[in-house]
Amino acid sequence: MVRHYKNHRETWPGGFSRNEEDAKVLAENPLPPAGIDVKNYKVNGHEIDFNGHLKMAFRTDSHNQLVAFEGHQCEGVTVDGVTYTFSEAPIETIAFNQSANSYEILVVGKGKVSIPVLLKTKKTFRLYDQNNKRLKYTMNGNQIKFEVNAKTSGKWLTLK
Question: Which domain of life is it from (predicted)?
Answer without folding.
Answer: Bacteria
